[in-house]
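Supplementary notes (optional reading)

For those who missed the lab, this is the record we used. Protein: Ammonia monooxygenase. Length: 354 residues.
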Amino acid sequence: MRKHLPLLTLYVVAALAGVLFSRVGTPLPWMIGPLVITGALSASGLVTVAVPIRTRPIGQVTIATFVGAHFTPDALHSLLQTAPMLLTVSLFILVAAILVAQIQRRVYGTSTVTALLSVTPTSPVEAGVLAEHMGVNPGPVVLAQTARIALVVTVVPFLLQLGAPPGAAPLAPVLHHGSLPGLAVTLGGALLGPVLFRLLRFSNPFFLGPLFLAALFSSVGLPSYEIPGPLLAIAQIVLGTWLGSSFRRELLEQRGALIGSVLLSSSLLLGACVLGAWGISALFGAPFPTVMLGIAPGGVTEMALTAGVLGQDVALVTAMHLTRIFVIMPNLGWIARVTHRLDGARRGRPEPGE
């Protein structure tokens, strides 16, 4: 018990930050509060406790189940009519990421592969693994991906709260949210989803597995159980604390030159996404806040949760992120290789790993 005391203390401090941020009316307080306080304590060196990565699935499963339960039959029917917009969002953010990566490479001299894998929105773990496979240092890639997600999670809710037009679409009601059958169905999806998706070797099984089963059960009309508010808050505290703990002082000192490039690329990509969301929402007649959350270069877990908390169309936001995952992740490897070959041909340099 004593060896876990520092970690438990950190969670208590993170929870108190969530309470404070909630009292002052911050959007997504139970995630942003822990993220800010944990990030500040870790970056300053006042806290050196390592938050185990195995704590992240606790938050992922809870939030995935919450999100999936809102894929009602009506929501799914509406979703099937938005396929052109989903593909447009995915292609836009891929092109924007490639352009921003080139700017980062020219300004900071970052290698082509490192810049592309750092900027393109995907899982930090998946990006790091791909970096290793391509023979480049995964450290800067993982740090850049994590920092971008933290920045987006912190900034986007404030942007929407301050500047978005009113009239957010309410969440689709969960069917029979207090029933015992609904509880059984919800628990079944939450427990079986990760197991099934790990067996099938899907990436991010602790989010995509429960999300898929919860959405499947809800879309065919099976009863679901509404995740209680305190449990949802705990899930956010877990995720926010884990994200904030990534900004360790020694890592930031070693990668000091990387911070500027991360801030530049993240800001440029976020700015491009704001413009893209404005254009796509006008083109397809969709609400700007919903498109903004769907196109934002954050993690699907965090953006889906933000959509739910801010009263946006959770199903549509999640679908935009999942479409982006299935468009970008299978193609990122060959795009990075082709980009590097073209760059190497211009500079006469060998490809990484050769």
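If you only remember one thing from this example: The CA atoms of residues 195 and 210 lie 9 Å apart.
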